[in-house]
Design brief:
The protein is α/β, with parallel strands linked by helices. The chain has helices at 35-42, 99-109, 121-128, 134-145, 149-159, 162-186, 196-225, 239-247, 290-305, 321-329, 366-376, 391-412, 417-435, 441-448, and strands spanning 10-14, 25-31, 43-44, 55-62, 69-78, 89-95, 114-116, 227-233, 265-271, 274-280, 308-314, 336-341, 356-357. α6 packs antiparallel against α7.
Length: 455
């Protein structure tokens, strides 16, 4: 994608989810200098409706060859710069489904100097034309992808400019410090000396702000992406019952016959605002059953890829030799939770081995299991997170923090002010990249390529 002069081309794409038999409305979005001309060519607007900005017209899309009507539509006109991209934008609101909206897009694309938009190109033009900064555009993508209410709230904060405002505030403080230092370097005899201790203390406060952003970003990553949690245990200890308890539905077959689960069963649930993909594994044991062996092999693989593991054992029977073998198979660096299930039964032998006990049958103790699971994954502090950087932004803020840490070395070695300016400039540059103020076209292309077509 090359958007050095994006306004030279008019682009179009379907800007809504398209599915047969679902959705009452589908939208074709057109942006660029010919947007109005293109749409006025392919539609018939009855009466004396006026083509003015920020108005809605009623009409029909016409097949330019057969002159037959394709669809009855509404046409939304938004002249630049008061549009999403900052250019002239026209949206054609068709009936939902597949055929009408696809045929409408085809009529748009056969017009001269009009082409199909690349993934994320509308948002990229919005950034290039100054309608959004990069953090806001990325937040729109995250809002579309949000899987929980909390993730949507974080995305909305980004759209409102909260991330951008915090980054700019920190950057301006660094620019002020850089200005003070450079002034002393250039006009040392005309200005009072700087107090390095005070300057360094102020710099450490900025460092604390960056550290908090990094900490919140890690929580935000959990909110956006969630966790993959494997449920393992000997046959018939209640793994499938626990899966059904968390998912609030019969995802897995529950019987008293050992080895019922022959394959991985996945269920996505939301626990305290965190998306959790639960993997109900086949009971791991020695077996001659060929199909069960395949399921057990997949269970072992799930152990290797899971973010956390819940090892379930029958608390009424106590901790067994096979339970210990399973515990030893969990990777040492993977967070694990030992859950004693079937606490509703009267006899509880060796229950102290469990990190938590519960009854998947009655739900008693389930809340404690959830809280302990989130705690061992570091996901129990998400409620206070108001803004959260994505991975790209996190990497850049971490680089800025590292640059500030380098100043600690400069101070320790009592090096001249010039050495402070090197690392301050590096930190400022990295923060500029977060908001897109210092970023290459190639990098922009890479970022927006992850977006969906039409956004």
């Amino acid at each position: 994608m090359n958007l050095t002069n994006p306004t030279e081309e008019t682009i179009a794409a379907i800007a809504s989810a398209v599915s047969p038999g679902e959705g009452a409305i589908a939208i074709v979005k057109i942006s660029g200098p010919l947007a109005r001309q293109v749409v006025s060519t392919i539609v018939r607007v009855p009466g004396k409706q006026e083509w003015k900005s920020h108005s809605i017209l009623y009409g029909y899309v016409i097949n330019q060859k057969t002159k037959k009507k394709i669809d009855e539509v509404l046409i939304l006109i938004m002249d630049g710069p008061r549009s999403y991209t900052g250019e002239d934008v026209v949206e054609i609101h068709c009936h939902g489904g597949l055929i009408a909206v696809q045929q409408t897009l085809e009529q748009v694309l056969i017009q001269p100097h009009t082409r199909r938009a690349f993934p994320g190109e509308f948002s990229q033009r919005a950034v290039l034309n100054g309608r959004l900064d990069l953090t806001q555009a990325e937040a729109i993508h995250e809002l579309i992808s949000a899987r929980t209410q909390k993730a949507a709230q974080l995305a909305m904060a980004g759209i409102d400019g909260d991330i951008s405002n915090v980054i700019k505030e920190i950057k301006n403080k660094l620019i002020d410090q850089l200005g003070e230092i450079e002034a002393r370097i250039d006009f040392e005899e005309d200005l009072p000396a700087l107090n390095s201790k005070t300057l360094f203390a102020d710099l450490m406060l900025i460092r604390d702000q960056l550290s908090q952003l990094i900490s919140d970003a890690k929580q935000g990553c959990l909110i956006r992406n969630g966790l993959k949690v494997a449920l393992i245990g000997s046959p018939n200890v209640g793994k499938s019952s626990l899966l059904n308890f968390f998912s609030k539905q019969e995802k897995a077959i529950v019987t008293n016959v050992p080895g019922t689960t022959r394959d991985l069963i996945e269920s996505e649930v939301i626990l305290k605002g965190i998306p959790i993909t639960l993997l109900d594994t086949a009971g791991i044991r020695e077996t001659n059953d060929a199909i069960e062996k395949i399921g057990i092999a997949r269970s072992h693989k799930a152990l290797e890829t899971a973010d956390a593991v819940i090892l379930i054992f029958d608390v009424s029977q106590g901790w067994t030799t096979n339970d210990q073998k399973l515990l030893e198979q969990i990777p040492t660096d993977t967070p694990k939770l030992l859950v004693g299930n079937k606490s509703d039964l009267q006899s509880q032998a060796l229950g102290s081995k469990a990190d938590a006990t519960m009854s998947a049958l009655t739900g008693e103790g389930g809340e404690e299991v959830i809280m302990k699971l989130l705690k061992i994954c570091g996901a129990n502090a998400t409620s206070g997170v108001e803004i959260a950087l994505n991975q790209r932004q996190l990497d850049l803020v971490t680089d800025a923090l590292n640059a500030i840490d380098q100043i600690t070395v400069v101070v320790t070695q009592q090096l001249p002010w010039d050495f402070w300016t090197i690392d301050l400039r590096e930190a400022i540059y990295k923060l500029n990249e977060v908001t897109g103020e210092d970023i290459t076209e190639v990098l922009l292309d890479r970022i927006f390529a992850r977006f969906c077509i039409g956004k």
